[in-house]
Amino acid sequence: MSYSYLSHLECPQCGEHYSAEVVRQLCTCGSPLLVRYDLERLKTEWVKEELSNRNPDLWRYHELLPVVEKEHVVTLGEGMTPLLALPRLGEDYGISTLLMKDESLVPSGSFKARGAAVGVSKAKELGVTGLAMPTNGNAGAAWALYSARAGIEATIVMPQDAPKITRSEVALAGAKLYLVNGLISDAGAIVAREVADKGLYDASTLKEPYRIEGKKTMGLEIAEQLGWEMPDVILYPTGGGVGLIGIYKALQELQELGWVQGPLPRLVAVQADGCAPIVKAWEEKAERSQFWPDSVTAAFGINVPKALGDFLVLKAVYETDGVAIAVSDAEMSTEQEKIARLEGSFICPEGAAAFAAARKLAQSGWIQPEDRVVVLNTGAGIKYPDSVQTDPPLLEIGEFI
Amino acid sequence: MSYSYLSHLECPQCGEHYSAEVVRQLCTCGSPLLVRYDLERLKTEWVKEELSNRNPDLWRYHELLPVVEKEHVVTLGEGMTPLLALPRLGEDYGISTLLMKDESLVPSGSFKARGAAVGVSKAKELGVTGLAMPTNGNAGAAWALYSARAGIEATIVMPQDAPKITRSEVALAGAKLYLVNGLISDAGAIVAREVADKGLYDASTLKEPYRIEGKKTMGLEIAEQLGWEMPDVILYPTGGGVGLIGIYKALQELQELGWVQGPLPRLVAVQADGCAPIVKAWEEKAERSQFWPDSVTAAFGINVPKALGDFLVLKAVYETDGVAIAVSDAEMSTEQEKIARLEGSFICPEGAAAFAAARKLAQSGWIQPEDRVVVLNTGAGIKYPDSVQTDPPLLEIGEFI
């Protein structure tokens, strides 16, 4: 029994293999790298029944994670988030089994914590002492916090318009924080220069292979929480798309292990209609997306005009007979309120986008009433105070309602 | 086997018993009521080993909770929050085992979700259709959200200065929201009138018996997570004090069941020096506290000038050889930053108060280096954006660091 069954890194584009024992960013061909495990050996040495006695966090799947030595794990207790039944909202959509995977219940209030936990842990194991990344806010917050716990110095660059609270998280964690009067792609250019100048570890989305492994655990948890039966549809708000790539990878690994059977769920990539490069590519049956100019949406986390892993997202959608679909900011806002009123959950705008897409796909018949549907809420609504406007009556002492 | 081993309600002041099958607020003597279970029967019918196969939420302890029928449970997946080792902070304090029970990982980002989950579930079971409560913000947010999920109409009154984000949560959930230009005690007067006028269920702190039961699960979880061994010290930021009362009650019930042995942990009630009625009462060896005039602290959740359950908090502290201690807002702020930098966690000011108290008690020798110390962080720092000031450099496109 090993703590991890990590084998090597593989390029999904040119097929090249690399050692996972040293720092490696992209493939020499420019593609992101994927982590491979010795699943054949794992199959003979591990049974899923062992899981029930493990802690309810993502490290319960340590055999399928890249950290080789347990003492390198940097954890804040992330993972095993609720898979909640939403019966009243489901009725409203006309879906009998509507489930929310609620990623608001993780450190920093965003699913970015999963990628950061595994990414930072592996960086620590590889001896990294300084890293840098561009972010739309939440990923930077998570990486800054986990880096602090790991004793790694982080440099974070985010758009000026990123959620304000994420600035506080980065600064409080003691990371170096810079704003840019532009988009995440502009922040990326600044980080690239800083990485080259200072010899830092580049923690940009998919420029290191391990963040996907953290996100992958969402797929592992969904399968375990459904008793190792797969749902019919999974909807995911897609910016960089790492979560969707990760969920797809997780389910494939579980298939190889023989832990799940039958067809994979249809994967749905949800975008905002103000930034929908993946949707456009999917409509054109293209393999890659094109840069989306002048992108704009209130769902800041999915304002990503061109994702490095776009071809992996599109592949996951094509191969599972999924779809890519865009929704408007107004639809998100309506859906956010609907979910709070019917189900008592204050979700983030990106999560609301995925729910709005579920509603549309149920209306169009693409989602059938008997489908088992899982929607990812990627973060807590409380990180987005401006998404709700209130104007309650003010009483003076001695006044009554 | 019953889902719940609920027996009856009991007055801790005059000893009177009441049925738990109908709505009951306070005892006729004015005291809060406590929920009692048939622990003798439970002892013979349930073993703690059964827990390992249950979901990681607070309903895993349903035998020790007051909801009789499983279908009345209103859940958003709350509970089984991490008990995190903080080795670097512990070293800074000179404590070898410093643990944080991290209540930021619950719905609405505050431990108030526990009380709301159990309180609202029981209200639903009792047939309640409308409730009202005063709040310093977080409890109101949690009760509004769970009430929405339960289909109960909630009326929430909070001070104008309560954290802004909690207004959004209440409003989005569709509850009736009112602000008062005063303190939680002023909000309480407005709620009392509304309850009397409209015949609503009074969900004010300790005016219904079930919120304690939700909070109690923090104590159950700490015991389970430590392998049914008790820690030496538990520190808790104390406003209304329901959590401390609940933890004390939980550990007593576990003692009666024979699941834990030996002395109870020393319980520490932590307050802000701008609002320290419990600390003053403890210093005077009094049974009850007195109203604290002109109370003020940035840790808004513990700005409670007079708690209805003060005598229960003081009893828990006295009987476990604990202490009550106040810290300054400056100490909280310093500690909040320290924890983020050393351990990567962005905690709330109330949680920071409890950590600041741990530091002081370790310095004074009241906490010994070998003590196993658990500190409650009662909520997510992201709910308090104003607790951190940042002024990062702004780069234009084309500029570099």
Automatic annotation (TrEMBL), chains A, B:
GO molecular function, one term: threonine synthase activity
Pfam families: PALP (PF00291)
Recorded superkingdom: Bacteria
GO BP: isoleucine biosynthetic process; L-serine catabolic process; L-threonine catabolic process
UniProt-listed InterPro entries: Ser/Thr_Dehydratase, Ser/Thr_deHydtase_PyrdxlP-BS, TrpB-like_PALP, TrpB-like_PALP_sf
Residues in Tryptophan synthase beta chain-like PALP domain copies: 74-379
Necessary cofactors: pyridoxal 5'-phosphate
CDD domains given in the database record: Thr-synth_1 (cd01563)
Transcription regulation found in the keyword field: no
UniProt entry tagged with the keyword 4Fe-4S: no
Name under which the protein is recorded: Threonine synthase
